[in-house]
Amino acid sequence: MGTPTDSVTMEKIVALCKRRGFIFQSSEIYGGLASTYDYGHYGVLLKSNVKAEWWRAVVQERDDVVALDAAILMHPRTWEASGHLEGFTDPLVQCLGKCKRRWREDHLREGVEAAGGNLSAELRCPECDGELSEPRNFNLMFETHMGPIQDEGSRVFLRPETAQGIFVNFKNVLQFARKKPPFGIAQVGKSFRNEITPGNFIFRTREFEQMEIEFFVPPAEAEQWHQHWMAERMRWYTDLGIRPDHLTLRAHGADELSHYSSGTSDIEYLFPMGWSELEGIANRGDFDLTQHAEFSHQKLDYVDPQSGDRYVPHVIEPSAGADRGTLAFMVDAYDEEEVEGRERVLLRLHPRLAPVKAAVLPLVNKDGQPEKARAIYEELRRRMTTEFDTGGSIGKRYRRQDEIGTPWGVTIDHQTLEDDTVTLRDRDSLEQTRIAADQIVGELERRLGADWRSPKLD
Ligand code: GAP
Questions:
Q1: CA distance 458 to 444
Q2: Centroid of ligand 1 to alpha carbon of 201 (angstroms)
Q3: Which residue of 165, 193, 283, 381 lies most exposed, with the fewest beta carbons within 10 A?
Q4: Ligand 1 binding pocket, CB closer than 6 Å
Q5: Alpha-carbon span 446 to 173, nearest angstrom
Q6: Fold for domain 3-80+142-331?
C-alpha cells in the first residue's frame, strides 16, 4: 500500500462528486443555478450519516439535550427581535469598471491583508482592476410573501439560521421536556442566505443545512460550558476520522463578533482553499431570550423550583453546517495511491459515515456464484447499506467501491461454493481475509462498532 498523499484539490472533489453521483449542479438541464447543488444517491447517504452521527453524539449519547424541528417560516417579528432585520448584512461593493461584479468589501480587505498589502490604499476590483462603489449594507435574508396579497403585511423570511426556531420554543420545551438548565435543544434543518459571494462548491451556498444546539445554562456556568462544547465538538470531528492537524480552534477578535455574541470560537478545517470555518461555537449570553421576551411580551426566564432564583439563562451555541461538514469529511478522506502500477482513488471515510458499508461481489457472473452472493447480500442489507454488483471485472468493481468509500468488499468465488467461506477485502489496507459466510454479518457489525481509526491518523 502506498503512502497517503495530500493531493486533494477542490476540482478533484467536485469531479469525483459528479462522476459518482454524490453532488451535482442544480437545474443542470437549464444551465444550472449559480452555487446551488443537488445531492444524488451517495451524497444523500453520506450527508444523512453525518447528520445521524451528530444526533447520536448530541442527543442519543447525552441526557441533557432534546430534539426539535421548527418550521422554516417564522413570525416576522422573530427577525426584528433577533436583530437580523437590522443587522444581518454584509458590506457590498460593486465594480464601476468593466466587469460590474459585486464583492464583499470585508473579504477584499482580508485578501489584501493576507497578501501583506497596504490596507489604507484604495481597494480595486480583483477581476478587472476597476474602481469600486461605496460599500452598502446588503441584508442576506430571502424574502417572500405569505398568502395571495404581496404587501408589507404579508412579508415573511426564509430563516437564515435554525437557532431562532429554538429560542422561540424555549418555553414550550421547558414545559414538555421536563428539563432545567443546564440543558440544550438541538435542531437540524435548512437555512437560507442570499450570500453575495457564494462559492467553493458546497462550502458557501445560498441554501444549506445547519446542525445547531442552543445550550441554556445558569449565567455563572457559561464559560465552563463554552469550554465543554468546544472540546466536545472538536472530538466529534476527530472521532469520525478528521486528522487533528487539519482542525484548529480560532477565537474571534472583538471586531469579528456577531451582534449577539460575547465570545465565539470557530472550528476551522484545512480546506483546499485554506483554513476556513467549519463550525462556530458562540457564547450568546442572554441576548436572544431577552430580546424575544421583550418583543413577544412573554416571560422567557427560568425559576429554580428549589432556590426560587429567577434568571434568564445564557446560551452556548455550537452551530455546524451539514453540507460544509460533509465537504470536510470528503476532503479529509480523499486519497490517491499507486497499487501494482495502477492509480487508485479512494475515500477513506469512517465506516459509520460511508454511504455504503459493504459490497457483495461474485468473482464471476456464473457457476452459482451470483445466487450465493445474492443470498449473502439479502442478509447483509437488512443490517447495513449494502450493494450487490455483478457488472464488469472485479478490479473495476473494487475501484468503483473505493471511490465511493465502501470500507468492505465481500467476494464470492468457487471456493465459497465448496466450503461456504468468502473473502473480506479491507478498503484501506487492501488486506483480504477468508471468513465463514455465516460470520460475515457479525464481523462487519463488530467492525462498525469498533474504535475505527483512519490509516491517515497512524
Ligand atoms: N446560529 C449561528 C450561525 O448561524 P454561522 O457562523 O453564521 O452561525 C454556522 O453559521 C455554520 O453554518 C457555519 O459554521 C457553517 O458551517 C454553516 N454555514 C453558514 N453559512 C453557510 C453557507 N452560506 N453555506 C454553507 N454553510 C453555511
A1: 22
A2: 15
A3: 381
A4: 161, 163, 193, 195, 204-205, 208, 210, 212, 277-280, 317, 319-321, 323-324
A5: 37
A6: BirA Bifunctional Protein; domain 2 (3.30.930)
> What's the confidence (pLDDT) of residue 4?
42
pLDDT digits (tens, 9 = 90+) for 356-384: 999 999 999 889 999 999 999 999 999 99
What kind and span of H or E run contains 226?
helix 222-239
Atom of ligand 1 nearest to the CA of 264: 6
Domain boundaries, the chain: 3-80+142-331, 89-139, 356-457
What was the pLDDT predicted at 1? 36
Give every residue of the chain whose pLDDT is below 50, as ranges: 1-4, 458
Query: 369-381 and 440-449 are packed helices; what angle lies between their axes, rounded to 10 degrees?
Result: 40
Q: DSSP for 1-37?
A: -PPP-----HHHHHHHHHHTTSEEETTGGGT--TT-E
Over residues 382-399, the pLDDT tens digits come to 999 999 999 899 999 999
Cβ contacts of 168 within 8 Å, gap of 6 or more = 70, 74, 75, 78, 292, 296
